[in-house]
Write a structure and sequence with these properties.
363 residues, mainly alpha, Leucine-rich Repeat Variant, 17 helices, 70% helix
């Protein structure tokens, strides 16, 4: 009796998996919904279905008390969870509770076989770009850390980027020309704000970071530095951290560092410090120039000495003091691989930051 019950449950799961697999060949979620059993098309009914399935599997284990049956029931229990989370992620209905969506994301990204699914990759990207705010970073973080680059959202072909490199450069040039001031858009404390109508282009620009290659990808990063705000800074910081850990494309890392220096704010500063600790010499020097860009009175070339900035508030002074401590730690711990020149540039920046703090104290 128990084995027959398990066979019925296994067939149910196979049928659901077969329906879900149809999305590998279609970008239309309605295709999956139409193929599903009606009790799985809405979250509340789906939740009840899988809850009942779990109860049945638990009952089989308790009644039969057979090690072989227990093992098979446990495997089906895990498989049912996998299917439930997969459907919650792919269908992403508005009425799915936040905790359920969060759990679905965290479960799926820990299973490599699920991450190979183009439907899963597409769902994660949609959540990162246009999903509820509480899930966007979680989805983006795992795209950067766990998914292959570039994403192939249709079997055998990557999605076409919205812009070419020339169009992206023209967009960035236009954004720069329309600025009200030169220099970084943000500060050590604050990130520049998203720029009005142009902020509507942010999802497509972020998509280019995982779908496009070469110059298109680099130009998209720099354009984000011109148009983005706090969330973009966090996303780019996550992208840079992932690239540093994977020892990825150096040109891409340099572009990310440049964009973050333009955006400013705490997430950008932390990412620039990580680049000094973990990047190549070129990335380290770009990150140091980025911090100089954010903390000194003007943009600094590699061969120039930075000038101390006039600090306008106690909060800014405290931020400078904190940065001095962070840079000093990087130089003293020995964990970062700093060439003699990178160390010299770091010491020079620390001296300039100290000068700014001293000037503030003498006001």
């Amino acid at each position: 009796m128990s084995k027959a019950k398990l066979q019925v449950i296994e067939k149910q799961l196979k049928d659901i998996e077969r329906s879900a697999n149809q999305l590998e060949f279609s970008e239309d979620t309605n295709t999956l919904v139409a193929a599903l059993n009606p009790v799985l098309r809405e979250w509340e009914k789906r939740f009840s279905f899988f809850d009942h399935l779990a109860s049945e599997l638990d009952a089989v284990s308790r009644i039969d008390q057979n090690p072989e049956v227990d093992l098979r029931a446990a495997a089906l229990q895990h498989r049912a969870l996998e299917v439930e989370y997969l459907l919650n992620l792919i269908l992403a209905e508005a009425d799915v509770p936040a905790q359920e969506t969060d759990t679905a994301i965290r479960f799926v990204v820990e299973h490599d076989e699920l991450l190979k699914s183009t439907a899963v990759q597409r769902s994660l990207l949609n959540l990162a770009l246009r999903g509820p705010s509480e899930f966007r970073r979680l989805a983006w973080f795992n795209i950067c850390r766990k998914l292959p680059y570039p994403l192939l959202l249709r079997p055998g072909a990557s999605s076409k980027p919205k812009w070419g490199a020339g169009e992206l450069k023209s967009l960035r040039d236009e954004l720069i020309a329309n600025r009200t001031s030169l220099g970084s858009r943000g500060t050590l404390l604050n990130t520049g704000e998203s720029r009005g109508k142009q902020s509507n282009q942010i999802p497509d620009l972020l998509a280019a970071l995982v779908l496009s290659e070469g110059k298109e990808r680099l130009e998209a990063v720099l354009a984000l530095g011109e148009v983005g705000g706090v969330e973009v800074a966090v996303f780019l910081a996550d992208s840079l951290s992932a690239e540093l850990s994977k020892k990825g494309d150096e040109n891409y890392q340099v572009s990310l560092v440049s964009a973050l220096a333009n955006l400013g704010g705490s997430a950008s500063v932390e990412a620039l410090l990580e680049a000094i600790e973990a990047g190549t010499e070129r990335v380290q020097l770009t990150a140091l120039s980025g911090l100089e860009f954010l903390t000194t009175s003007a943009a600094i070339a590699l061969t120039e000495s930075p000038e101390p900035a006039v600090l306008a508030s106690v909060e800014m002074r405290d931020a400078y003091i904190q940065l001095i401590g962070q840079l000093t730690r990087i130089m003293s711990t020995g964990e970062a691989s700093l060439s003699a020149y990178v160390r010299y540039r770091t010491e020079e920046l620390v001296d300039t930051l100290n000068d700014s703090v001293s000037l503030f104290a003498r006001r």
